[in-house]
From TrEMBL:
Residues 1-33, 302-370 are annotated as: Disordered. Residues 302-312 have a biased composition (Acidic residues). This is Uncharacterized protein. Residues 18-31, 314-324, 355-366 have a biased composition (Polar residues). It comes from the Eukaryota. Residues 326-340 have a biased composition (Basic residues). It comes from Knufia fluminis. Residues 1-17 have a biased composition (Low complexity).
Length: 572
């Protein structure tokens, strides 16, 4: 099959896309079933349910319709129109049905909505179900702006349009600027405590579903030679930022809850961080006796005393609420972050007017969130790599200005190399969970090594040729980091360990190479540990020694031991 990218528009009809996909994937597994439109009467039932806010009934009705067709593999799966699917995606994460759900039934509605989306994705696939239309962000889409009374091009679509708030002003796809705004905000939530962490509990399942959809859709489009119609390419083209869109996409992927990240990627829904009020009886304060003659004024004087204290402390008072106003703090050197480029810990203010102080280190992320958050980021990096691996796709849309593989991985290095060592390990070392493919991880390791090793290292490989043992031994394994930092010595060791483990797993190390490999390996370990010991022995280190440096020493030593174990016991 030709790999040439067709010149058809990404907004081609879903029917033609599905036909192309079916012919291209007739031999592929799994075999998705065709989607069939719902009969008018059934669709009317669902529409009435939704407009009456009977979401549970609508969702269960659809689940029963789809389940009834599972026994017949040749029968089409009944799938509602794409605007209905967009509503269900909104219901899965909207605060009214999650963090502010007033009862267990509403919370169950969000879970059922996500379950329905998974079922459709697993039975018909994202192409047949027209998910590229359903999950299109429409905030700046003039074509879909029908508030002026002009009907849509399709009369049936206009007649069946859902007139509920979750399909209009409260729709996720109308509120968010683009997909990357959602990604950045959700990943910010993964790095912050309190209400942010609560929101992350609901954003995570939604992100996992969306990434599965993007991955499957890209794979199917790639097989059919229609990558320009993929949902992923649509999200890249529609990303805000113009020529700087590549950096914005990467900033969203590495959003860390820091000051600049929270300012750029803000809450999606109005008052999203507001949680449901806990029901309970209000405890009445005891009555306070007031006796002016005895100078007993109750709590009347407390307000004036509080105001005086505010004035003495130089703190302004809000003229409306009487409460101390919250002023922006000035930046200090101690508030700078190293997690991502240009990140800073400044005062955060969300669009709802609620302030979040970042002066307390305990309230901020020390990395990039829990392991699930790291996995989401790695899957995003792999998707971006897949796009950049298609030069014909990129060259056919020069106005998008998306980087090729070399430029993209150079950006990856810019964002990954400064990460704290514990987070750096999670990005680089192999894992059984979904993330970077082995070939992508090996390429990333090589890019990082080329930009981290000392001046003795002379490799200038710019191609994405598979890593070989000879190249590893000659150009990388014996060297140390050029930076006068124990942390970077440990990072070099982690990079080399990742590459070595993958080569051993792929059986790319022959038994007769074992002895020579061990010699070079031990030479490199000694070089890096000697440089680390020199740093530890300096007076500057002794004055500034901290737990992070001691942790880096431990990682450096343990990584060296693991590499020796791989060569001594896993190479046959």
């Amino acid at each position: 099959m030709s790999s040439r990218v067709p010149t058809s528009s990404p907004l081609s009809s879903a029917r033609s896309s599905a036909d192309t996909y079916q012919s291209a994937t007739s031999q592929s597994q799994p075999q998705y079933r065709p989607a069939s439109p719902l009969p008018f009467e059934l669709l009317q039932h669902i529409q009435v349910y939704l407009e009456e806010n009977l979401f549970s009934q609508a969702l269960r009705f659809l689940l029963s319709l789809i389940s009834a067709t599972t026994s017949n593999e040749k029968k089409g799966v009944p799938v509602p129109p794409f605007d209905y699917l967009a509503v269900f995606s909104t219901l899965a994460v909207h605060p009214n049905l999650t963090t502010r759900a007033s009862n267990p039934d509403k919370l169950a509605q969000s879970n059922t909505a996500l379950r329905l989306l998974w079922m459709i994705n697993n039975t018909t696939g994202p192409v047949n179900a027209s998910l590229s239309d359903a999950f299109r962000f429409r905030r700046y889409d003039d074509k879909l702006s029908t508030r002026n009374g002009s009907p849509a091009d399709d009369d049936d679509a206009w007649r069946n349009r859902i007139t509920i708030t979750y399909a209009d002003k409260d729709s996720l796809f109308n509120l968010a600027d683009d997909f990357w705004a959602v990604v950045g905000w959700a990943l910010n939530c993964s790095c912050l405590p309190g209400p942010h962490a609560t929101r992350w509990n609901y954003w995570l399942p939604w992100l996992e579903y969306m990434l599965d959809t993007l991955e499957t859709d890209w794979e199917l489009r790639e097989q059919a030679g229609t990558c320009d119609q993929s949902l992923l390419w649509q999200y890249i083209k529609s990303a805000d930022g113009g020529n700087a869109r590549r950096r914005r996409v990467l900033r969203a992927t590495f959003a860390d809850g820091g000051g600049s990240a929270v300012k750029e990627f803000r809450p999606i829904f109005p008052k999203e961080l507001k949680e449901r009020k806990q029901e309970g009886k209000q405890v009445r304060k005891p009555d306070i006796k007031v006796d002016i003659d005895e100078e007993i004024f109750g709590d009347y004087m407390e307000e004036s005393e509080s105001s005086t204290d505010n004035e003495e402390s130089g703190q302004a008072t809000d003229p409306l609420s009487g409460q101390p106003s919250k002023r922006l703090r000035t930046r200090t050197p101690s508030m700078r972050r190293k997690a991502t480029p240009r990140a800073s810990k400044s005062r955060l203010t969300d669009h709802e007017g609620s302030d979040v102080s970042t002066a307390d280190e305990s309230t901020m992320s020390s990395g990039l969130g829990p392991p699930e958050s790291i996995q989401i980021r790695l899957r995003l990096l792999q998707l971006l790599s897949s796009v950049s691996a298609h030069p014909e796709l990129i060259s056919s849309a020069r106005e998008v200005n998306w980087p090729d593989l070399h430029e993209l991985y150079t950006l990856f290095v810019e964002f990954i190399r400064p990460l704290p060592l514990p987070v750096f390990q999670q990005f680089i070392l192999p894992s059984k969970s979904k993330g970077l493919k082995p070939e992508s991880r090996m390429a990333l390791c090589e890019f990082l090594l080329q930009r981290t090793l000392d001046s003795d290292h002379t490799s200038k490989v710019s191609t994405f040729e598979p890593m070989t043992l000879d190249r590893l031994v000659q150009q990388y394994l014996p060297y140390a980091s050029g930076k006068n930092s124990i942390e970077f010595q440990a990072k070099v060791s982690i990079l080399l360990e990742s590459v070595l483990r993958q080569l051993a797993k792929d059986n790319n190390i022959a038994s007769h190479q074992k002895d020579d490999l061990l010699d070079v390996l031990e030479e490199g370990i000694e070089t890096r540990e000697a440089k680390a010991n020199n740093i530890r022995g300096s007076s500057k280190y002794k004055k500034a020694a901290n737990k992070d440096e001691e942790f880096a020493v431990a990682i450096l030593q343990e990584s060296g031991k693991r590499m020796k174990f791989v060569v001594e016991h896993l190479v046959k």
